[in-house]
Amino acid sequence: MALLLLIQGACATHTSHLTMDKSTQKSVRVIGIPQITVSNKIDIRQENPVYAVIGISAKVVQQLAREAKRIQYGEANPNLLQQCVDQMREGMKARLRKQGYIVKDLDMTYWQALAGYRKQNKAVAGIDALLRIEIKQFGYFSGSPYKPYRPGMVMVSDLVSMDERKPLASNVYNIGFDREDISLFSFRVNYATSVYVADPKYFYKNFDTLLAHAEQSSGGLKYVARVAAETVAGDLKKRASSYTMASR
């Protein structure tokens, strides 16, 4: 049975936004936050429709160029990714506590936390639900050679009950990216709640300009991380609209 649940969880896709109802809000008092799933590099990419027409060989060249840009930007901001993840985590904890939850910081993965619950691990004792965060894309993205690089994040958030492993709340977020430019199919999701974070101060016309302003551009990603934290925690209550305006 445990194996079946594991397979179902691994294969699950997000088809619609699930809002936590009032009865669930009353029953969930203690939320555990396991490690946030994220790539080991800040993503720097620019899509070029021409490559899709040319074929596979051109796509390989595009992938190599994309990886080179990630490495260059990472070398210019070596600690930025961890800073953003830590900032996001602390922001979620603070907001959840303001909303009346008890929050437990877990130094383990989501799957390790579930296994710990079955084995009655003291580290997860008393937790009603796990807040699982998976960052699908985080960095600077340009939808075409004619569009600027802009900061953003695509992430999935699931609040899952510890005892039944039942989804209590779930959402997919596009924070900051132009929704016309991102492919939901590539993230294996059917929808995304768009949170608009548009500050031209952090828009860069090309990669050279972005790299030349590496330190300044880090502010854009830190801001996105802060908005992400507030949005995820706030979404554990019902929202009147699918779209939110965020301003600095």
Number of domains: 1
**Biggest sheet details:** 8 strands, mixed
Oligomer: single chain
Task: Report the count of strand segments.
Answer: 8
In whole angstroms, the N-to-C terminal distance is 48 Å
Which overall shape is indicated by the principal axes computed on the Cα atoms? Answer: elongated
Radius of gyration: 19 Å
Structural class: alpha/beta
Nearest-integer average pLDDT: 85
Flag low-confidence runs.
1-12, 238-248
The portion of residues assigned to helices is: 25-40%
Report the order of strands and helices: HHEEHHHEHEEEEHHE
Number of helices: 8
Which percent range describes the beta-strand content?
A: 15-25%
Key descriptive features of the protein:
single chain, 248 residues, alpha/beta, eight-stranded mixed beta sheet, 8 helices
